[in-house]
Design a protein that fits this description.
Helix 1 packs across helix 7 and helix 4 packs parallel to helix 6. The termini are far apart. The strands form two sheets. Strands 3-2-1-4-7-8-9 form a seven-stranded parallel beta sheet, with helices on both faces. The protein has a two-stranded antiparallel sheet with strand order 5-6. It has a single domain, classed as NAD(P)-binding Rossmann-like Domain (Rossmann fold). The chain has seven helices and nine strands; from the N terminus they run βαβαβαβββααβαβαβ. NADP nicotinamide-adenine-dinucleotide phosphate (NAP) binds next to helix 1.
Length: about 230
């Protein structure tokens, strides 16, 4: 039975991933800011394979406590899913700089902090994998404008994950930043192209079949390799 840790697990893509992994008989550690308000997760927790733990990825003390709570437990898969758009003022004439900093804390720094903080747990797995939910909006190959805080924090996440992938490959830890598709969530909006269930099912397949050859690539939810 594989153990998967999922951040931002209370709604959106994170919740969809919890449902898919439980359906595949994995043990799921669902991390979210407010477990007491996470009603969808609480309902799923009637399944004894699901454990809900508090985690605010923007708070160093919360990350430290989360890592301590998992000390000694093997983890097969870490999914850094929690993310923020970085506020609604991200244009040339109207930029919220504090929200930009917060976007880096949540989208870039937290995935690194959790990945390295849980390395000892991952090393106890026969097939350790780290997946960070990034976005095609962070691709340097694209010419998209606006959403500067979000785009730059995801571009930086990609760079961090590409570096970690190269560094951890000799230790057998596979690692990818992924684009989940344009997904119907609070963040993606109702005009998005795919459902949470479609995205989560694709991400599950991607993780399940991830090979050393693909580690360090930027992959989409359907397995397509994306330009950096
Ligand atoms: N939806 C899309 O089309 C799309 C496209 C590309 C990439 N993505 C990426 O996919 C991931 C999931 O997005 P989503 O669409 O599911 O977004 P969402 O519906 O807005 O959910 C965001 C999740 O992240 C959590 N989160 C935010 N800040 C956090 C913090 N400081 N600590 C812990 N959790 C925090 C939220 O928790 P709270 O409920 O406590 O706020 C929530 O669970 C994100 O990384 C996003 O950038 C989404």
């Amino acid at each position: 039975m594989e153990t998967v840790v999922i951040t931002g697990a209370n709604r959106g893509i994170g919740l969809g991933l919890v449902q898919v992994f439980l359906a595949k008989n994995a043990r799921v550690i669902a991390a979210c800011r407010n477990p007491e308000k996470a009603t969808a997760l609480q309902e799923l927790a009637q399944n004894s394979a699901l454990e809900i733990l508090p985690l605010d990825v923007a708070d160093e003390a919360s990350i430290t406590a989360f890592i301590a709570a998992l000390e000694g437990k093997p983890i097969d898969i870490l999914i850094n899913n929690a993310g923020t758009l970085g506020g609604d003022k991200q244009s040339v004439d109207n930029m919220d700089y504090d929200a930009w900093v917060q976007a880096f804390v949540v989208n870039t720094i937290a995935p690194f902090r959790l990945s390295v903080g849980l390395l000892a747990n991952l090393k106890k797995s026969p097939r350790p994998r780290i997946i960070s939910v990034s976005s095609q909006m962070g691709s340097l190959a694209g010419e998209g404008t606006g959403h500067y805080a979000y785009r730059s924090s995801k571009a930086a996440l990609n760079k961090v994950m590409r570096g970690l992938a190269a560094q951890l490959k000799p230790e057998g830890i596979l690692l990818c930043p992924i684009h989940p598709g344009w997904v119907k969530t609070d963040m993606g909006g109702s005009n998005a192209q795919i459902s949470v269930a479609q995205s989560a099912a694709g991400i599950y397949r991607l993780i399940d079949t991830l090979s050393a050859a693909k580690s360090g690539q930027f992959l989409a939810w359907d397995g397509e390799e994306l330009p950096w």
